[in-house]
């Protein structure tokens, strides 16, 4: 089944404890992206990747890191999480940059930082 | 995309009626405009897109209209069904130096009543 998977789905952590949220797609998509969703603000793009080893900042990259060492994986790293990073996070992928608007989303990761 | 604060605008529609969801955008350089649907507890799902050089595009039961003069985008859903109940987001690809980005509006809650 073609899908985007994220792990973990739920995470409660404490301020300053490094964490990684994994994202994997099995569709051989070139373009991948991370978003955070907060009430009333829609989805805001954190980082995106046009292909392996090519990443760029979205609108809210502060406090996050990403890497794209393999085409299928695009982990999101929070080196020192803070309470304002409590949010619902979505990973998405699309076939190519030319189709970047037609994104397939994962199920989401709900992160709480205390 | 639009920003409407903490409370999503809500559109209540009777089953079988047509729905019209509106979105204002601000970037005249955006090259694609897109509609996504998000059901409760799930990631967003691509519905339809329209390129900036078009003013109308039709899909299955949906029509997207683009008015570049007033920077307005709308999604029309014909014969609304209970399964159409969801939050609907407009999004845009900014173009220019930000051509890899995807920017979402805050969303509209659609509630279908029997």
Taking all residues together, what is the mean pLDDT of chain B? 90
* Relative helix content of chain A: under 10%
Largest sheet of chain B, in brief, is: 6 strands, mixed
Q: Which residues of chain B sit in consecutive blocks of at least 5 with pLDDT less than 50?
A: 1-6
What is the arithmetic mean of pLDDT of chain A?
Answer: 95
Radius of gyration of chain A: 13 Å
**Overall 3D geometry of chain A?**
globular
Which percent band covers the strand fraction of chain A? over 45%
Range of strand content of chain B: over 45%
Determine the oligomeric state from the structure: heterodimer
The SSE order of chain A reads: EEEEEEEEEEE
Fraction of residues in H or I helices of chain B: under 10%
Coarse structural class of chain A: mainly beta
Q: How would you characterize the largest beta sheet of chain A?
A: 7 strands, mixed
Q: What's a quick, concise take on this entry?
A:
Chain A has no helices and 11 strands. Chain A has 114 residues and is an all-beta fold. Chain B has 114 residues and is mainly β.
Describe this structure in words.
The complex is a heterodimer of chains A (114) and B (114). Helix content of chain A is 0%, strand content 48%. Chain A has strands at residues 4-7, 10-13, 19-25, 31-37, 43-51, 54-57, 65-66, 76-78, 87-94, 104-105, 109-113. In chain A, the strands form 2 sheets. In chain A, strands 2, 4, 5, 6, 9, 10 and 11 form a 7-stranded mixed beta sheet that branches. Chain A starts with a strand and ends with a strand. In chain A, a hairpin with a 2-residue loop joins β5 and β6 (54-57). Chain A has 114 residues and is an all-beta fold. Chain A has no helices and 11 strands. Chain B is mainly β and 114 residues long. Chain B has strands at 10-14, 19-24, 32-38, 45-51, 56-58, 62-67, 72-77, 86-93, 103-104, 108-113. In chain B, the strands form 2 sheets. In chain B, strands 1, 3, 4, 8, 9 and 10 form a 6-stranded mixed beta sheet that branches. Chain B has a 4-stranded antiparallel beta sheet with strand order 2-7-6-5, with no helix packed on it. Chain B starts with 9 loop residues before the first strand and ends with a strand.
């Amino acid at each position: 089944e073609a899908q985007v998977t994220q792990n973990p789905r739920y995470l409660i952590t404490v301020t300053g404890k490094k964490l990684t949220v994994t994202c994997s797609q099995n569709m051989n998509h070139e373009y991948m992206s991370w978003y955070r969703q907060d009430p009333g603000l829609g989805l805001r793009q954190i980082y995106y990747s046009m292909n392996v080893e090519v990443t760029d900042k979205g609108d809210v990259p502060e406090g996050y890191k990403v890497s794209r060492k393999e085409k299928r994986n695009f982990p999101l790293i929070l080196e020192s999480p803070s309470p304002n990073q409590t949010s619902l996070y979505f990973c998405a992928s699309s076939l190519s940059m030319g189709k970047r608007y037609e994104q397939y989303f994962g199920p989401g990761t709900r992160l709480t930082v205390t | 995309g639009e920003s409407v604060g903490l409370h999503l605008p809500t559109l209540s529609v009777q089953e079988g009626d047509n729905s019209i969801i509106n979105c204002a955008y601000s970037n005249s350089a955006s090259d694609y405009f897109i509609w996504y649907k998000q059901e409760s507890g799930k990631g967003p799902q691509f519905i339809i897109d329209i390129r900036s050089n078009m003013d109308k595009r039709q899909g299955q039961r949906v029509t997207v209209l683009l008015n570049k003069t007033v920077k307005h985008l709308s999604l029309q859903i014909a014969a609304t069904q209970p399964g159409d109940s969801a939050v609907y987001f407009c999004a845009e690809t900014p173009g220019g130096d930000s051509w890899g980005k995807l920017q979402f509006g805050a969303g509209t809650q659609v509630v279908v009543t029997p």
